[in-house]
Amino acid sequence: AISAYQVISDNNVRNVDPSKRSCYFDDENPLNMYQNYTYTNCILECAIGFVRKKMLLETGQSCTPWFYPSIDEHVAETCDPWQTQQFIKLVSEVPSKNCSHCLPDCTTTTYQARISTSTSGRR
Questions:
Q1: DSSP notation for 63-78
Q2: Which helix H or strand E contains 55, and what residues bound it?
Q3: I need a labelling partner for 49 at 20 to 30 A (CA). Which of 16, 65, 67, 102 fits?
Q4: 123 residues of the chain, pLDDT tens digit each
Q5: Buried (b) or exposed (e) across 30-61, using 16+ Cβ within 10 A?
Q6: Cα separation of the two ends of the chain
Q7: Spatial distance between the Cα atoms of 87 and 79, rounded to a whole number of angstroms
Q8: pLDDT of residue 75
Q9: How far apart are CA 41 and CA 90, in angstroms?
Q10: Cβ-based neighbours of 34, under 8 Å, separated by 6 or more
Q11: Strands 63-64 vs 77-78: parallel, antiparallel or unpaired
Q12: What is the DSSP letter of 31?
């Protein structure tokens, strides 16, 4: 079974500071790699930035794997396979507090999937 949970914020709440309403609309909080704000885009952009800085500090080199968006395509080098492996490992280790500026979407749909089974009467 699949169920959907929809959150829709009225435009009247735009007058409330995002930190008090705890969400951003898609045209607020501009991101570097994406035109529209989403929580997922913000987290990904934050993680990529964090890992690039960490790699630069640790190895003196910074890169982005070819399958990730790049903040600045002219400056960012593409990671080789070994750097890509390290990059992916570091992305999974980004401290959640590092991206605390990313707020949920004011309007979103969340899906939940459930699997159930039953035994038939046959043996």
A1: EE-TTS--S-TTTPEE
A2: helix 39-59
A3: 16
A4: 888 888 888 888 999 999 999 999 999 888 988 889 999 999 999 999 999 999 999 888 888 899 988 766 555 689 999 999 999 999 999 998 999 999 999 998 888 898 888 776 555
A5: ebeeeeebbeebbebbbbbbbbbebbeeeeee
A6: 26
A7: 8
A8: 59
A9: 18
A10: 41, 45, 69
A11: parallel
A12: -
CA distance 86 to 88: 6
Which among 102, 114, 106 has a CA at the least distance from the CA of 4? Answer: 114
Place of tokens 């969340």: 110
pLDDT on residue 7: 82
pLDDT at 46: 94
Q: Which two tokens stand for residue 10?
A: 């009225």
The pTM for the full model equals 0.78
Q: What is the pLDDT of residue 118?
A: 74
Q: Which of 30, 27, 36, 31 is nearest to 48 (CA)?
A: 31
Q: Which two tokens stand for residue 9?
A: 């914020």
